[in-house]
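Hi,

I'm pasting everything inline rather than attaching a file, because the server keeps stripping attachments. The sequence lines come first, and each chain or strand is labelled.
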Amino acid sequence: MNMLTVQDLRKSFGNMEAVKGVNFSVEKGESYGLLGPNGAGKSTTINMITGLFPPTSGEIQIKDINVIKNPKQAQKWIGVVPQEIALYQSMSARENLKFWGRMYDLSGSELEKSVDQVLEIIGLTERAKDKVETFSGGMKRRVNIGAAILHKPELLIMDEPTVGIDPQSRNHILETVKRLNGEGMTIIYTSHYMEEVEYLCERIGIVDHGQLIASGTLSELRETIGDHSKIILSIDKDSSNLDGLAQSLTSLFSEKDIQIQDHQVMVFHKEPQLILTDFIQSVAKSGTKITSVDIVEPNLESVFLHLTGRKLRD
Amino acid sequence: MRKIWTILTLQLKEFFKSPGVLVLMFVMPVLFSGIFGGMTMNSEQNKPVVNVVLNDTEISGQILNLLTKEHHYEWKKATRQQAEKNVAAQDVAAAVVIPDDIGERILASEPLLDIIVQRKSETYLALSAHLEGTAGLVLRSYQATSKLEADAFPKVLETIANNKGVTVEKQTIQKETKTNVEASLLFVGFAIMFMMFGLSGAASAILEERMGGTWGRLMVSPASKLQIILGYLLAYFFMGWIQFAVLMTTMNLMFATTWGKLTYLIPFVSLVILSVVGFGLMIAGLVKTKQQASAISAVLIVSTCMLGGVYWPIDVVPDIMQKIALGVPQSWAMSGFKEIISGSLHSATLVKDTLALVGFSALFFFIGLRGIKFE
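And the predicted assembly:
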């Protein structure tokens, strides 16, 4: 059963088309990652799904509710963790959680119980009475998540929830999300940290320039680059003859599998151990001094690079 | 309703947590009102001197007795020449002339009393009201006795003047208390000005919440736009009322001021607060940041308060300025407050003031709600 269905979603701001016909669906209980660089259109897509603003065209359905026609009805089922720390800084963590709980129709003992549970989940029971403004960035992010899960939403939408925090808080957040998903909550997680998406999400959509350019499980996405590993030779730039080097490498490998940058020479291959010796000898023969050798297994970074021609954080 | 109440209480709590806001909304107006109100009260103890020019007829004498029923002035007889000299030298606030031909003036329905002043000061305004009241009394007494004996008219005037129960100008001067309309209007003026600063600052918090993300988070909650905006606006409305009530009570305790009939005052204050809330919302809807809102509000509030007669009575400014003042809500608010506090409750004026404020409020809310981004 689909928890979320997005069909041909488009959004224009003036002449600029920020989202260009995005299609995807998320099943109940699934965790789906939206991966893309800043400005790719992830947040705009998320904002339309949460009903913050309407799309220029397209359809969004949460459960069987049309979000564009009945946003308030759909919003009862979703929890939103915005990119910003959307909390009242001069209020305590408990006061913030109670306020947001009331916005989702919780009250009385149900609200108190839910706040206590959430404080436990985000690990801030001890600091519940402290003002949010006294918290570290990581603790604020945890309260930010807490405010979204008070009403036990069926779909939790998280827009870059770990931006600018310490590794300890990041781990806590990732574990919390993993746990919520394990308990049956459907998760949509946007990030430009691919290791987070790799860790959390069963399926991943890659967004670039307002389009969903690939979607699938991690292994399906890896297949799009032929499951090629990457051998990286770091070289001394002063000692290298890049033209001669390129010429000698093309005699051994296909041109599309070679990349030469300022101080790195890279070759993509399905079985790197078979060509490693030839590759090193060929580089050394051209008179280039090698400073290090590295083999990188295919990952989202290489998938993204392969699909878009640029690094995720460019 | 619960969501509206939740937003309302949150906004009020946040608002009153800020020491800066408390200073702006309570300390400053009380301080200003205390200083300037005190000056007004002290000036009352040093009564302005008014020369009276009159002949020695019985009617003139009785009219003088009526005039001196007003104890806020020191009445001194003078010849016309002396009176004009005193007014020119500003030794006296004004001179009142009881003309020799007062009988003919009554018959011709001409103004009964002449007043000589250097300029139209606040003293002149209060004095002219008293003179109009006295003249009206004289005229009515004449009309009532015109068909009786010849000495009936002065006798009636004498009876009125000697009657301790008569308050000649009760409509504008409340003699039973030590207060006056001027002081109360001064307090109201300060209350309006600081309320405008306080509430426009509060309304621009919407802009800050937009930047901070809480506004967006509210928008994606199941609360409707109407519930959210009502929560905010009602909070600002209550803030305005709390400020006004605190100021009224404080001034009452400090200066024993009176505020007119509460049945008129409460709805009118509510309307004034509504238009101030609308003003704040309009500013928040027209600009992008809280800093811009603060700068624009400061310029608009100070200039419109000057034009609208918040700092000084609008009657003392040139006619052209009085006409321009009709374009700002403060002038209508002050006019309405004057009617209510003085007790005159002239219904045509009050209705006009009320309708004007309703119009301004509607305009401000329209612009504000169109400008606010619910995204």
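Residues 225-255 of chain B form the longest helix (31 residues).

If the labels don't parse on your end, tell me and I'll reformat.
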